[in-house]
Amino acid sequence: WNWLGLFLHEMTLPLLWGSLFFSFFNPQVVNGIEIYSMKIDSKVTSRFARNVITSQAVNRGNVHKEVFFDVELPKTAFITNFSMTIDGVTYPGYIKEKEAAKQEYEKAVSKGQTAGLVKASGRKTEKFTVSVNIAAASKVTFELTYEELLKRQFGKYEMFIKVKPKQLVKDFEIDISIFEPQGITELEAEGTFITNDLQNVIKKTFSDKKGHISFKPTLDQQRTCANCSQSLLDGDFTVKYDVKRTTPDNLQIVNGYFVHFFAPTNLPQLPKNIIFVIDISGSMSGREIEQTREALLKILDDIRDDDFFNFILFGSDVHTWKEKLIKATPENLDEARKFVRGIDTEGMTNLYGGIMKGIEILNAAHEEKFVPKRSASIIIMLTDGQPNVGISNTEDIRTHVKKAIEGKYPLYNLGFGYGVDYGFLEKMALENKGLARRIYPDSDSALQLQGFYDEVSNPMLMDVELHYPENEISGLTKNSFKHFYDGSEIVVAGRFADINQNSLTVDVKGEGANDVLSFTTQQDAEQTAKAFQEQEYIFGDYIERLWAYLTIEQLLEKRTAATGEEKENLTAEVLDLSLKYKFVTPLTSMVVTKPEDYDNQAGIADKTTEAKYSFDVSQNKVDGDPHFIISVPQKEDAICFNINEKPGDVLSLINDPVTGITVNGELIGDKRANSDAKSQNTYFGKLGIANKYLNLKVTVTSEKITVQNGNEKTPFTWLDSVTLQQEGLTLIINKEKNLVLSMGGGASFVVVLHQVWKKHPLHQDFLGLYTLKSHKLSEQTHGLLGQFFHPIDFTILEIHPGSDPKKPDATMIIKNKELTVTRGWQKDYRKDPKHGIDIPCWFVHNNGAGLIDGVHTDYIVSSLF
Ligand SMILES: *[C@@H]1O[C@H](CO)[C@@H](O)[C@H](O)[C@H]1NC(C)=O
Ligand SMILES: *[C@@H]1O[C@H](CO)[C@@H](O)[C@H](O)[C@H]1NC(C)=O
Ligand SMILES: *[C@@H]1O[C@H](CO)[C@@H](O)[C@H](O)[C@H]1NC(C)=O
Q: What average pLDDT is seen over the chain?
């Protein structure tokens, strides 16, 4: 493995080795493609941000190459423009109604190949990917624009930019200009990847109304170490600022549109009456309930002494801590801490019972005038599942809850993990003046819960109403708010009925802790123009676009809970505005096509809705002759290995001592035993899935499925189509295809049936196992598959030709060991059970030696259960 060797291979295997050859000389070139420029240019005017990302690449290889443009945008942003320029010719994006865009895109794809799409990916971001095939020595420029209204939280506006160029970039730059007519009081910029050396590279200035941030690291400053070719630019770049507030509000008028910002400071806090409604059903067991306890204990430390509070827990039954709301005296808080420490899981999900009890207690407190008249009441519900006890029809629950709350208090729904019916939680929260939030299952889940509480823990005003003269205004956004929380901001925008009108009078009213806040604000277009004298930062139509952004956002929100004709009307309205202002919303897409040249290129930008969030992360599986595939999502890659043992042996696949879940598999061989036992193919013929705490055993063979609950056995065959739901178990059999099984509402498994031709001389039917929601298992989970539910990482070095010319070898650094691995493919049979889909992976030889803990024979167990 030396320069000469490399050169020779470059000639014999130009496709594979050409790129390596170049990367040896020039570390900025990855796979033959050099990204030589990447710029992120942001302009913010009165909280409204327009960001343009430009990336320029050149194909340094000597064959056609696919160039990827990969960016992550905030979920709250709308893409407004995208274009590609190839060798000087620009191909613009066109915004279309989603269905029309899809047809055009499919037409283009059917003729060619390439595609780009957006998928919801991170917590705060969604990914936009476009790829294009360009000729050797060709250049391509991608330009993407997106817009968003920056929200104020905890006293600051926050702008967030995901940075991940994946290679060293000669010309890398982030440039942010902010213009705020009220004046800027503070400006911060930080990056999760910023080292001490890079700190000085961030240039930050602000004075009066203007702020500027620039970050322009040189090639050497981008390196992870001197002479390293890896980029340390990988993470979040965050800008935070706030504006001066000499008055509680600020009104701006430009070209027939107005925007009104309202964020009074220095008001006394309202006491609050807060009900926590907490899911303790079985699926919360393990980390979720631990993290909930941890968060509630921290929240108890922050509750103020004039607040009232109570806890409602729901599993199969509903438990209340106290029959009434309780004042947050030190003694009561101590008692509450004891109660919280004792919270444990039980049974199913009686969400209806829990929430109704919470409302009842809050209603009673108000009726009995037990809590102060001037106080803010809030319900926070946390759940990780779907209602299945009491009333379980979500429409019925919504109807009852809405009737019981009657708009008196906001309902905040927190959905823990991916097992929740988030659409339902969101609808119910929105129709009760609250909002829904996801809590992502991770090590910081407790912090996420606490963070949400912090947002709503400082109410300053109730029943805030901003009144605009009705006959003068059209297209007014939401103008009444149940609560105003300290550190946030209320934004209202509208359009004048008469475009020539240039002044406005607004009456503002809200209930404070001691008295009513009430005032009148007047503004005219001239005053706004004066505040905007430094024109250079303004994009002239920013108020109009801000109005369109806010209107679309609120109409989409309304649409989530709407039905029938109302929903149709809202859809039409949003579509109209999205097309007019060129926003990529859930109803529109942007299409880019490049019709001539080699193949047709097409790209489509799509915005998925939160409810459709896919949980396609970290699925590990074993299928085939046992092929284990371990996905490593952060590398977008996989590791695979085989276990060669004899028919009849039982292997431990998953074993979680905390949830009591085990999965074991028994091997079968071919019909006729092979004389050489080592080279014999083996498969899983029988799987045993058990939960010892629920006294449940499920046995799956290629012929039948047996569910054993205590001593009671229920048999099924693969010819059945069954949905079985009983305490702690959901089992769905899809006739002759697969079965989906979840236990205790937590971990889920899919068993795939592989049927071979009945008269095949050698092969027989076998099973594959796929895991879903492995995060529901504890950290102590082990077994051949189970040990990989904990995050695992690896580094690949020295890719070199192996014994098979199509499959290069490499050195893998994993668990502080060096292993020789081979690039190969394993099949995923979920979508296509007959032929499977090839998944590329790094194959670890010798029964996974070095990758798995211990040796593979450690995993042989005596029986299926
Ligand atoms: C979109 O971007 C392209 C390329 O910069 C530009 O020519 C075009 O005018 C932009 N379209 C809009 C609507 O801003
Ligand atoms: C980097 O490479 C140069 C030239 O090959 C060499 O002189 C220098 O010692 C290297 N530095 C480090 C830190 O490896
Ligand atoms: C929907 O729009 C039509 C036409 O503008 C209107 O007549 C109708 O009342 C609207 N329906 C609802 C439920 O808003």
A: 84
For residue 731, the surrounding DSSP H or E stretch is strand 729-734
* Residues within a 6 A CB radius of ligand 1: 81, 83, 90, 92, 143, 582
Nearest to 252 by CA among 465, 11, 538: 538
Phi, psi of 366 (to 5 degrees): -75, -40
pLDDT over 50 at 216, yes or no: yes
What confidence tens digit (pLDDT) does each residue in 669-726 have?
A: 877 665 555 556 778 889 999 988 888 899 999 889 998 888 888 888 888 777 777 7
**Chain centroid to CA 126:** 7
Task: Please give the structure tokens belonging to residue 53.
Answer: 């990302």
Question: Of 319-333, 574-588, 761-775, which one has max mean pLDDT?
Answer: 319-333
| Degrees to nearest 5, angle at CA 828 with 823 and 829 | 150
Question: Residue 90 and residue 83: Cα distance in Å, rounded?
Answer: 7
| pLDDT confidence band for 42 (50 / 70 / 90) | very high
Q: Work out the number of other CB atoms within 10 angstroms of the CB of residue 727.
A: 14
Annotated domain spans of the chain: 24-245+579-595, 249-267+461-560, 272-457, 619-861
Query: Please, are residues 389 and 353 in contact by the beta-carbon 8 Å criterion?
Result: yes
Please state which CATH number belongs to domain 249-267+461-560.
Answer: 2.60.40
Question: Which residue's CA is the closest to the ligand 2 atom numbered 6?
Answer: 227
Provide CB contacts within 8 A for 14, sequence distance 6+.
62, 63
Structure tokens at 319: 């438990």
- Does domain 24-245+579-595 fall under CATH 3.40.109? My reply is no
Count of Cβ atoms closer than 10 Å to residue 486 Cβ: 19
How far, in Å, is the centroid of ligand 1 from the Cα of 521? 38
Share of the chain above pLDDT 90, in %: 49
Fold exhibited by the domain 272-457 = Rossmann fold (3.40.50)
What is residue 108's predicted lDDT score, i.e. its pLDDT?
Answer: 60
What atom in ligand 3 is closest to the CA of residue 565?
Answer: 13
24-245+579-595 and 272-457 share one fold: no
